[in-house]
Amino acid sequence: MATPALMLAAAAAAPASENPYGLMQALEEGGAISWSTFIILVIMSIGTFYILFTKFLQQQKIINQGKKVRTSFWNAPNLRDASGKLDQKSAYRAIVEDALIAQDQHSKLTDPVDQHEWVQASLQRSQGGIIARLGEGLAFLATVGSTAPFIGLFGTVVGIYRALIKIGSSGDASISTVAGPVGEALIMTALGLIVAVPAVLAYNWLIRRNKTISEDLSAFTNDVHGYLASNGAVKPAMAAGPAGKAPAQTRSAAAPTPRGTEPVRPGMTPTGQQADPTNR
């Protein structure tokens, strides 16, 4: 009588049986159409993760540039010196340089145009170019998210068709004969969903980050425009004092006035009580 230890040893020594309904079997039986569908889904998946990581790094770079602008940019005496503090390929530096170029070119125009409108148009064009570059590749993610399930479904339909033809030619319609090939064909649908879901999630996430970056660039563009239109008199509130704090006189102005030092208004006594008009 065999002991449990001997039975386990015999089971471990026996070669593992191969799965007759795996992915490779589905591709081999599906032929060129199944292989083409599988390759297209693989290319879509690789492209999705490539765009996800490259766009994330591009967005994070601009976000870090925005943090640097908020900490040190507006402390410079003028915009040219401030732009020199930024990286050479900084998106914020490109906006400032375009604004300065537009300001210098305004005096060369033969047809008079308001400087306010000329500089504003240049700033909007520069900001729009940056947002357009951030949006590159997102259309691919949207396409993958909407078409990958249907590509996988197409592979499933072809697989089921071939399975039914094979079952019909063999003449055996038992559940064991039908369930295997049909379940094998559904692998393509699962692959299509596996490719589509990350693409949709990545698209929505990157779009949200692009919206946040666009809002920061728009605020910075307005600040630069106000600075140029006022010859440096108007700056963002965060540049009013060190570390984004308001000046001391602003804080002291909001402090409560000690009692007894209020100015005497007409009709009021020095103690702050209403004067009696009959007591004169």
Task: Tell me about this structure.
It is a single chain. It contains 9 helices and no strands. It has helices at 4-13, 23-72, 79-84, 91-105, 115-134, 138-170, 175-185, 187-229, 248-253. The model is unreliable at 1-9, 11-17 and 240-264 (pLDDT under 50). It has 280 residues and is mainly alpha-helical. The chain is rod-shaped. The protein has one domain (26-236). The termini are far apart.
Write the layout of secondary structure elements.
Blueprint: H1 4-13, H2 23-72, H3 79-84, H4 91-105, H5 115-134, H6 138-170, H7 175-185, H8 187-229, H9 248-253
Helix pairs in contact: 2-6, 2-8, 4-5, 4-8, 5-8, 6-7, 6-8
Backbone structural class: mainly alpha
Strand content: under 5%
Overall number of domains: 1
What would you call the shape?
rod-shaped
Cα separation of the termini: 127 Å
Unreliable spans are: 1-9, 11-17, 240-264
Instruction: Calculate the mean pLDDT score and round it.
Output: 75
Individual helix count? 9
Main beta sheet strand tally, sense and closure: none
Number of strands: 0
What is the structure about, briefly put?
This protein is mainly alpha-helical. It has helices spanning 4-13, 23-72, 79-84, 91-105, 115-134, 138-170, 175-185, 187-229, 248-253.
